Amino acid sequence: MSSERTKASVVVRNATLDDVPAIAALVLKVYGRPADGYTPGMLRGQISSFTEGQFLVEYDGEVVGYAASFIVSADLALKPHDWIEITGNGYAARHDPEGDWLYGMEVCVDPEIRRTRIGQRLYNARQKLCEDWELQGIVFGGRMPGWKRKRKQYPNPEDYVEAVKAQKITDPVIRYHLRAGFEPIGVLRNYLEEDTDSGGHATHMVWRNPYAVEVKPANKVSYAVKERVRVATVQVQMRAVKSFEEFMSNVEYFVDVCSDRRADFVVFPELFTLQLLAFEKRKLSPAESIEALTRYTPRFVEEMRELAISYNINIIGGSHPTRTDDGDIQNVAYVFLRNGSVHAQEKIHPTPDERHWWNIKGGDSVDVIPTDCGPIGVLICYDSEFPELARRLTDEGARILFTPFCTDSRQGYLRVRYCCHARCIENQLYVVTSGCTGNLPNVENMDINYAQSAILTPCDYPFAREGIAAEIAENVEAVVMADLDLNDLNFARSEGTVRNLRDRRFDLYRVAWKDGG
Fold first, then answer.
1. Which helix (H) or strand (E) holds 40?
2. Is residue 343 helix, strand or coil?
3. Which residues are tagged catalytic?
4. Residue 72 β-bridge partners
5. Which position among 181, 270, 497, 502 has the lowest Cβ density within 10 Å, counted as fewest Cβ atoms?
6. Among candidates 315, 270, 321, 312, which has minimal Cα distance to 294?
7. pTM of the predicted model as reported, rounded to 2 decimal places
């Protein structure tokens, strides 16, 4: 009986957001501890910032290699820098479509896969990208792990690199890069503290593209191609409904209206499901009210999901009190995508009233949600007043943030409004707000509401003069829509009057998250 040996299949391709769990598992396997690798949030940021520069290798369908890269200007790439500064804290947040150098921020390969040249395939993919895009070359900080053993002989790391180049000593990583056509133009001191074998330093490696043009044409990236997303916000009149069916009928009306006008997203207000308490048989205390609402969670989620599918629209379903797996009640925004998937974003910072009257607990994480229009973020009301949350979502690739809110006074509303506009400016993205109006006389702690929902933009030439794409009049039930051009954000970030994201001082400050993100 003859046997036939089947060759393993090796595929090199661009990474997608669906690959994030597999890449995170690979990084953990390579480096051994979560702190040594990239968080899922960082990986989402890399892929969202520059999909074309993120490569992975599949071996018989399993991810065994990953290379992360992005484009930067020569001013950043060729001068001294450290890993945190150049990579934007690991998110590839310094990606510049108008840059002329490809920066390699990571290559990792499954140590169990031998004799398949996984690393070489990743380097080849980078070089092809560099040639296709007519970039000047590739630059990165390379490891020099042999220096730890030779430190007494070569206390100066530059002397160590020169000795390796002269073949007086051997360093496996430096020699690999030299054979691959890279040249060291110096040593990046204090590049990555965790690399103790290299003393925290790195070789400043460069590969020059032989096909690069001498003078690059202006405006290499075209902004003429529109990348429009139509968004709608609903300002909901809180009213005394007689049943769950009546409540959902009102919701479906607005979903239908927005779908007819081909909106990609529709957003409802925070806690708009409190209307369901209007038909309770007796007046409930605040704690009893929230407990009663949690019983509607499964039905609310399922029926909203069906609306998203049947009307072919992505729905940010306001927020709804939900009892989570740990037994706490949290204020949760559910996002219902038109492909049938459901995502949940907990409110991170409950207000003092939410904590006191309703015993609502804060959530533990904030991350982007992948949609057919790109990654989005959700910040529920008070969360919009904490800038580090929006910055993380921006670093993960969000270009639109949705903020369902519920405020009972003009002062409270303006806190949310002003902070949302600040988030637009400092992150150069869009924010869509949706609030409640009217009153619920029989519902404790929800007797009055004040809102003026809006679609907000950065303040620069491509956008509306006041940074307001659309807004609803104060305290009336209505819907407004706007077409948001995501390419305008790309222009603002790379060529705008101010460039908040690019001009961050990573050498001076950064936000450190407990999960490493």
1. helix 40-49
2. strand
3. 270, 347, 381
4. 101
5. 497
6. 321
7. 0.89
